[in-house]
Amino acid sequence: MYKRKSFRLLLSFDCSIPLSLISNLWGKKLRPTNPVREFLMASSVFLYAIICCNRTNLLSPKAIFCIPTLLALFTTTCILFYICSTSNYLLVFPSQTHVRVKQSSATGMLSISSSTSRNQRQTKLSAPGAFSNSTGVTGLVNLSVVGLPTPFEYRKISHFAVDDALENTRLGKSEMISSGNYVNNEVFHDRDFFVGNYGQMNRSLKIYVYSHRSDDPFANILLPVNFEPGGNYASESYFKKVLMISHFITKDPSKADLFFLPFSIARLRHDPRVGIRGIQDFIRNYISNISHEYPYWNRSGGADHFYVACHSVGRSAMEKTIEVKLNAIQVVCSSSYYVSAYVPHKDASLPQIWPRQGDNPDLASYERRTLVFFSGSLNSPVRENLLRVWGNDTEISVHTGHLEKPYTEELLSSKFCLHVKGFEVNTARISDALYYGCVPVIIANHYDLPFADVLNWKSFSVVVATLDIPKLKKILQGISTDEYLVLKNNVINARKHFHWHLPPFDYDAFYMVMHELWLRRSSLRVSG
Fold first, then answer.
1. Per-residue pLDDT tens for 494-508?
2. Helix 509-520 to helix 191-204 angle, to the nearest 10 degrees?
3. I need a labelling partner for 140 at 20 to 30 A (CA). Which of 296, 317, 337, 459 fits?
């Protein structure tokens, strides 16, 4: 009896507190940031429920069922408060902020101005060019001084993002930020950051290749070809041929950052001893052999190993060696999220490039009168839909059979060239379009574009969802002349990254693939 009375004494609140007072506290007077406000509201409801429960006998059946429910409510409230206070995703801002970054040519001062749509206020801040740090180190900038409606006093931004804004201003590029996103018309996400990484990669990256003799029964599969690669899948052979004569090769495995698995999927497919049905068994046996002869695969589970494949049969080649699919770096042309073998971020997209000799074509002498051009077989529902909607259009030229003019002339006389998903998401049409100065229009959902880690594809291509095929003409006609010229100029600047050379040239396709591998290497070298 004594304990019951003491417990009831602890809960003997004044039950006359009106809910309007609680609402007034959290909704009108305090006006805290969103997480705090929501927490106070839920806590107020919890407190009021306890007060109402106190009016009944705590040992009654009604109260016995009420108390656990209230405790669960309180626990849930605390969890929600923690999530809200540590995550940006659940924060809802009632206003939209637009920020403009400019640098004065006379003083070198950085001017940041913001306008908030909620109350039309505008705030400006001028600061010296102290943000000219191209190292990519993340800093802290007090955004409350420019009036940004953030629940935290500070928000992280990266220095090279500010560098981009300053560089774009200097070059006459777009410097507007809408809702916190910079509009970048440069070919690279951050040129200085890439060049610094590229130089470090060129100096220090080392690759060990598992050695095989010329009299090996499968030398045609494991060694570089002794001729100039050709055809749609030449990228696979070009990479291995160029790698073996490059300065990235090391004979000392202890100095290697990565280990190259030199088998060729395309040549396995055409070898009568293997064929398509025998590829999986060949690779399983190959991994078993190197794991028994060498310690390098076992010590990392294959995480510091990679292979290169461009043929479409490569997407199922690792089905009997799951550790390759899950651990090794796969540099493949079939870089689609629909392919179960492809693991985004771990794997890399290899561009499918048709080999070309000689200098780039002179683009200035061609007049581009056709709005859109596409030529290809009807081997996917996406292409069938494209033909059904635009097959008889006068401005969108869609061909599925024999062309009246040569393929190259069609590319040179068109403003936009379509890359439409066929049986596979990858084709050589993107590199074809870039080579002939035609702006690529990519119609393929969930596709990792080549070198997307460093190249800003939005600056030299147009990406259209497959569902928007009926809107294709409206989308492309909505691109102004100035915007098209920016895209076209960036196409010319980007096409050198989609070209193979023997020996390789700086920043060509080979070096760009090596940079992709550099980004995916382990930061710690495994010794064993």
1. 999 999 999 999 999
2. 90
3. 459
